[in-house]
TrEMBL record:
Pfam families: NmrA (PF05368). Residues 6-251 form the NmrA-like domain. Keywords: NADP, Oxidoreductase. This is NmrA-like domain-containing protein. Coiled coil: none annotated. SUPFAM superfamilies: NAD(P)-binding Rossmann-fold domains (SSF51735). InterPro entries: NAD(P)-bd_dom_sf (IPR036291), NmrA-like (IPR008030), NmrA/Isoflavone_reductase-like (IPR051609), PCBER-like (IPR045312).
Length: 315
């Protein structure tokens, strides 16, 4: 495997929240990959036909099939050497079978599971965090069952593009409202958080695939920038030319709100837990892995660029 080069890439979930950024980055990679293939369902092929046609014009191949069909997945694996799973939380359970079939295949050599987001093995509290449980089970399955397949996790931390959003009824969990010039921050706003912009997630995945020797068997921690909520607020104020109202919520209140939402079995309880984890330092490391992938700050989005994009999108 020392001479392995990722050349034929298959993506699951490639039209989703983060998957579309990964697919776009794969298609624009220089030098180009020999083939980029998207596995998608008949419904998605119909609903997102315009996006798929655009990507096809850029060189994408599309396989329409059933993610839960062993025959469909096995057939898709015959022509590729590397698989990226970008399935969302609602599809994480399918990875056990995707991994089993990849291990049994003759062609697939490398698999990147859907780990884009929060570090599920960051500290001694991580094993007990509710949102982490299925991803932890996937890692356990990999450790106990896979012998041949190479695995790499690309751990990005929170997506800045989504972190700045407020959710009605959940404002205390943080976010920014440009139209109201209002910011919600946890604690005093001085706790550092490591972010990735969604476009940079695509860059990090491409850089990972270009460096198999560096990436095999690792959980790579990558970040666009590390800033405090107050620094984000200052950038919003600078770019909007206005002073914003700031509402601060102590961590203890966030924890109580989080517990209440889990007790109510609210579907957004996960959001509160993740934002509490990030505010507690769950994105920080002595050193990230950007440099081993050859990515420098100038290759990635800055805070200024990220806020400019957020404002353009109304966030």
């Amino acid at each position: 495997m020392s001479s392995f080069t990722a050349s034929r890439i298959l993506v699951f979930g490639g039209t989703g929240t983060i998957g579309r950024y990964i697919t776009s980055a794969l298609l624009r990679a220089k030098p180009a990959f020999q083939q980029v293939v998207l596995f998608t369902s008949p419904k998605t092929a119909q609903d997102k036909a315009a996006q798929l046609d655009k990507w096809k014009a850029e060189g994408l191949s599309v396989i329409v099939g059933d993610l839960t069909s062993e025959a469909d997945v096995t057939a898709a694996y015959k022509g590729v050497d590397t698989v990226i799973s970008a399935v969302g939380r609602g599809g994480l359970q399918h990875q056990f079978e995707l991994l089993r079939l990849a291990e049994a295949s003759e062609r697939v050599q490398w698999f990147l599971p859907s780990e884009f987001g929060t570090d599920i093995e960051h500290n001694d509290k991580s094993p007990d965090e509710r949102p982490h449980q299925l991803k932890l089970q996937v890692r356990k399955f990999i450790r106990e069952n896979l012998k041949r397949l190479k695995i790499t996790y690309v751990v990005t931390g929170p997506y800045f593009d989504m972190w700045v959003n407020t959710v009605p009824g959940f404002e205390v969990a943080g976010g920014f409202l440009p139209d109201q010039k209002k910011a919600y921050v946890i604690e005093d706003g001085n706790g550092k958080v490591g972010f990735c912009t969604m476009s940079d997630v695509g860059k990090f995945v491409v850089a990972t695939l270009k460096a198999p020797g560096t990436s095999f068997g690792k959980a790579l921690k990558v970040q666009s920038f590390i800033v405090t909520p107050n620094e984000v607020l200052a950038e919003y104020e600078r770019q909007t030319g206005a002073k914003w109202e700031v509402i601060k919520t102590p961590l203890d209140e966030i924890r109580a709100f989080e517990a209440k939402k889990w007790e109510e079995e609210h579907p957004l309880a996960t959001l509160v837990t993740l934002r509490r984890i990030w505010a507690e330092g769950g994105t920080l490391y002595a050193q990230n892995d950007n440099s081993i992938l050859g990515l420098k700050p100038e290759d990635l989005d800055s805070l200024e660029e990220a806020v400019t994009k957020a404002l353009a999108a109304g966030r």
